[in-house]
Specification:
By secondary structure, this protein is α+β, with helices and mostly antiparallel strands. It is 19% helix and 28% strand. It has one domain: Peptide deformylase (Peptide Deformylase), CATH 3.90.45.10. Bound molecules: zinc ion (ZN). The site of zinc ion has 6 residues, from helix 2.
Length: 183
């Protein structure tokens, strides 16, 4: 396993559409393991392959353990993910991005999504994600299409930058949790 370098906004690779994964197996598993290690080292909630310069359709995600949330505390690896169903109602939440450190914004997204994907060995998986996990999944899938969370923001008051001093209390998460965020 190795920690990979995370690309920052401005790098053209973050704006490209990633290609479907065709080769499954140990090499893909090794890439996913690197992505998980990189995400955890950066205290992120998710990381998409294009963020480390790999233009393939996969992402990883992990919510910190919370007794009330059975989907928390585990590592997700989704290859060639697709949203097959989404809640008709959207909810607003605060997001950050490992590729845009210190920037946060309020983004409206469906409250839940059903995602069809594959694991690193090509086995089909299907996950219904609610709340923060749904938000992270949608944020990461945007990265696979060259979309950043700021692209969803229409009003200037919905985007802000936190100074590093304030940030040190908290990590700069990918798709920041809704708690303890400034209004
Ligand atoms: Zn991001």
């Amino acid at each position: 396993m190795a920690i990979r370098q995370i690309l920052y906004a401005g790098d053209p690779r973050l704006r490209q559409k990633a290609k479907p994964v065709k080769q499954f197996g140990p090499a893909l598993k090794a890439l996913a393991d690197d992505m998980l290690e990189t995400m955890h080292a950066a205290n992120g909630l998710g990381l998409a392959a294009p963020q480390i310069g790999v233009l393939q359709r996969l992402f990883v995600a992990h919510l910190p353990k919370d007794e009330k949330d059975p989907q928390s505390g585990k590592d997700f690896v989704l290859v060639n993910p697709q949203i097959v169903q989404a809640s008709p109602e959207s909810v607003e939440g605060v997001e950050g991005c490992l590729s845009m450190p210190s920037w946060y914004g309020r983004v409206a997204r469906p409250e839940w999504v059903v995602v069809k994907a594959m694991n690193v060995y090509g086995k089909p998986i299907r996950i219904k994600a609610h709340g923060m996990l749904a938000r992270v999944f949608q944020h990461e899938m945007d990265h696979l299409n060259g979309v950043l969370f700021v692209d969803h923001i229409r009003r200037p008051e919905d985007l802000w930058q936190e100074l590093p001093e304030e940030e040190s209390k908290e990590s700069a998460p990918e798709a920041a949790t809704a708690v303890a965020q400034p209004a």
